[in-house]
Automatic annotation (TrEMBL), chain A:
<dbReference type="InterPro" id="IPR036866">
    <property type="entry name" value="RibonucZ/Hydroxyglut_hydro"/>
</dbReference>
<comment type="similarity">
    <text>Belongs to the metallo-beta-lactamase superfamily. Class-B beta-lactamase family.</text>
</comment>
<dbReference type="InterPro" id="IPR001279">
    <property type="entry name" value="Metallo-B-lactamas"/>
</dbReference>
<dbReference type="Pfam" id="PF00753">
    <property type="entry name" value="Lactamase_B"/>
</dbReference>
<dbReference type="InterPro" id="IPR030811">
    <property type="entry name" value="SoxH-rel_PQQ_1"/>
</dbReference>
<protein>
    <submittedName>
        <fullName>Hydroxyacylglutathione hydrolase</fullName>
    </submittedName>
</protein>
<dbReference type="GO" id="GO:0017001">
    <property type="term" value="P:antibiotic catabolic process"/>
</dbReference>
<dbReference type="GO" id="GO:0016787">
    <property type="term" value="F:hydrolase activity"/>
</dbReference>
<dbReference type="InterPro" id="IPR050855">
    <property type="entry name" value="NDM-1-like"/>
</dbReference>
TrEMBL record, chain B:
<dbReference type="Pfam" id="PF08770">
    <property type="entry name" value="SoxZ"/>
</dbReference>
<dbReference type="InterPro" id="IPR038162">
    <property type="entry name" value="SoxY_sf"/>
</dbReference>
<dbReference type="InterPro" id="IPR014756">
    <property type="entry name" value="Ig_E-set"/>
</dbReference>
<protein>
    <recommendedName>
        <fullName>Quinoprotein dehydrogenase-associated SoxYZ-like carrier</fullName>
    </recommendedName>
</protein>
<dbReference type="Pfam" id="PF13501">
    <property type="entry name" value="SoxY"/>
</dbReference>
<dbReference type="InterPro" id="IPR032711">
    <property type="entry name" value="SoxY"/>
</dbReference>
<dbReference type="InterPro" id="IPR030831">
    <property type="entry name" value="Fuse-rel_SoxYZ"/>
</dbReference>
<dbReference type="InterPro" id="IPR013783">
    <property type="entry name" value="Ig-like_fold"/>
</dbReference>
<dbReference type="InterPro" id="IPR014880">
    <property type="entry name" value="SoxZ_dom"/>
</dbReference>
Length: 326, 266
């Protein structure tokens, strides 16, 4: 699979529906639909001066307002540092208030791990000059950010009001960054998306691999490159961390998230590959069973169905034999 | 697809085959456009809504230029014609399959302009059996130019990839053709699509013929179930709107070779 083959598929997918769940969006009482939306952030202290706001282990819906990804706040002498910013301007505004509540300081840095809307669009609540992103992400936000936001408005609705496209002014580079007594080591990896920023904070031993690691929630593959993703996971596994904070799912010590993400990618790839070898088309492969252990993984069937749409065309382009012309 | 349960629904017998309850003439999808669709495409013949005509759609539409679907009307028995109709698409009649010696089955990918009912209508003995589902989608799969200009592989225009599998009663053909499906709605991109496609056996007997519309996705990718267990190869012919003809041969695996391969699979 050539890297170039992926790029034109990227464009519409992002914008047009990152994980919408139409089924869950209906059957909502009218009163709830018209009530003002407010995110209730419930920070969990995971280390000294560090709190994580856990995302719902769900698809993006008009109920959860896209608040499905984890966001972490770290107190430093200079101010609060955020890892990711949530799905919307409103969420970002709530994070800003939460940072002041928890640390008594303003947000001085927001590190964006990757392009996907549930992690990045809340950054519009902060000044561009505190937003840090890798060069690939800065480019991709400029290119696809509008589609990304449009897709989110469509799926999450009013929650998105006021959300635009973040324009990080600061480039996150590989290496160490000292911020108010904390030391962040930055790694530019890829595989979940074209560029995935992984952060390791030495003072606390916390590791933030973004969506390279999912735990107890199925990994998403709209922009995935599975070989690169596996390589990135091996890199992450070698980092001697205390606690791993995945992009989705609980923070844990140990490598359960890494192993589960690897196992999920293997299961998805094997399932789609086996379906291809049987001559099945997209919706037929979607209907095939997953391994039993996937029962314990949130939104497994839904993400598997999405992955079939993402990955089967690549397998076809790669493995369907050329027919001899007559 | 669920088998019809004769105990649960009143079944009339006509011409030796089960008929669904004739009261199912009200559109279960409540589409205001359905009457005009029926008038335009069903040739004045009567139509009933019939769950045995199954349309399988993905749980979410992520890429409106490549929406995968499978239509399976095998439970009706042999049909003369199978249509796929998307009421709210600019080109509602998406595909027409004449399964001369093939099953009433087709899987493919299409473009979607907006959320729409997607129907399949199977004609048997002068009666249309219509099934379908509503597909939710954002706008613009047909008329909005891609953000990044799409790359067309002109050097390989018309190249076909494919493979044939033996199934219990049929040959399963999967086919992917390198060809844009430019529908003429995007400025400065004229109409340029593959219009017809036929599948024949090695003796030249036609097994299935398809008419593809502007709504079929780029690089048409099809799955068909055709007869012809005796043939050693299938011939696929296609013609585009510029009058170019494309022909290719897909070898049919020997019966024993494939079963050995199946057993060898972990």
């Amino acid at each position: 699979m050539a890297a170039g083959e992926r790029s034109h598929g990227l464009t519409r997918r992002h914008g047009l529906a990152l994980g919408l769940s139409a089924a869950a969006a209906v059957c909502r009482p009218f009163a709830a639909a018209t009530a003002p939306r407010r995110y209730v952030l419930d920070p969990v202290r995971i280390a000294e001066g560090v709190w994580t706001v856990y995302g719902a282990q769900e698809a993006i819906t008009a109920e959860n307002g896209g608040a499905i990804a984890n966001v972490t706040l770290l107190d430093t002498r200079e101010g609060c540092v955020l890892i990711d910013a949530g799905p919307s301007h409103r969420f970002g505004t709530a994070l800003d208030a939460l940072a002041r509540d928890l640390t008594g300081k303003p947000v001085v840095r927001v590190y964006l791990t990757h392009l996907h809307a549930d992690h990045s669009l809340g950054a519009t609540a902060f000044p561009d000059t505190v937003l840090w992103a890798g060069p690939g992400l800065r480019t991709d936000l400029a290119r696809f950010g509008n589609d990304l936001a449009s897709g989110m408005y469509r799926v999450a609705g009013d929650w998105m009001r006021g959300t635009g496209v973040p324009k990080p002014a600061m480039e996150a580079r590989e290496g160490a960054e000292d911020v108010g007594g904390r030391r962040f080591r930055l790694l530019r990896l890829s595989g979940h998306t074209r560029e995935d920023l992984c952060l390791f904070e030495e003072a606390s031993g916390l590791l933030f691999p973004g969506d390279l690691v999912f735990l107890d929630r199925a990994a998403t593959t709209p922009d995935a490159d599975l070989p690169r993703w596996r390589t990135a996971l091996r890199t992450i596994a070698d980092i001697p961390c205390g606690l791993l904070v995945p992009g989705h799912g609980p923070a844990e010590a140990g490598r359960r998230g890494i192993d589960q993400t690897l196992a999920w990618l293997d299961a998805v790839e094997a399932g789609i590959g086996a379906g291809f070898e049987l001559g099945l088309d997209v919706t037929e492969i979607m209907a095939r069973p997953l391994p039993d252990w996937a029962d314990g993984i949130a939104v497994a069937r839904y993400e598997y169905a999405r992955s079939v749409m993402h990955l089967l065309p690549e397998i076809e382009a790669d493995r369907l034999p050329n027919l001899s012309a007559l | 697809m669920p088998a019809p349960n004769p105990a649960a629904s009143p079944v009339l017998r006509s011409a030796g085959r089960p008929m669904p309850n004739a009261s199912t003439t009200r559109d279960p999808l409540d589409s205001p456009l359905w009457p005009s669709m029926a008038e335009r495409y069903l040739g004045g013949l009567p139509a009933i809504f019939d769950d045995r005509v199954a349309v399988a759609l993905p749980p979410v539409t992520e890429d409106q230029t490549q929406v995968p679907l499978t239509v399976d009307a095998r439970a009706i028995g042999p049909v003369e014609e199978l249509l796929v109709i998307a009421d709210l698409n600019p080109f509602p009649l998406t595909l027409r399959l004449v399964p001369t010696a093939a099953q009433a089955f087709v899987a493919f990918r299409m473009k979607i302009e907006q959320g729409t009912p997607i129907r399949a209508a199977a004609r048997r003995d002068g009666l249309w059996h219509v099934g379908g589902r509503y597909l939710d989608a954002a706008g613009g799969g047909c008329s909005v130019p891609p953000v990044v200009e799409k790359k067309v592989d002109w050097r390989n225009l018309g190249r076909m990839r494919g493979r044939v599998w033996r199934e219990a009663h049929d040959l399963r053909l999967r086919l992917r053709m390198t060809h844009p499906m430019d529908n003429g709605m995007i400025a400065n991109v004229p109409l340029f699509i593959v219009e017809t496609l036929t599948v024949s056996d090695a003796s030249g007997r036609q097994l299935a013929s398809l008419t593809l519309s502007e709504a079929i996705a780029d690089d048409p990718t099809l799955t068909l179930l055709v007869a012809g267990p005796e043939t050693e190869a299938l011939t696929v012919t296609a013609r585009n709107t510029a009058g170019n003809d494309f022909r290719a041969r897909a070898a049919v695996p020997p019966a024993d070779a494939q079963s050995a391969e199946m057993q060898g699979r972990p």
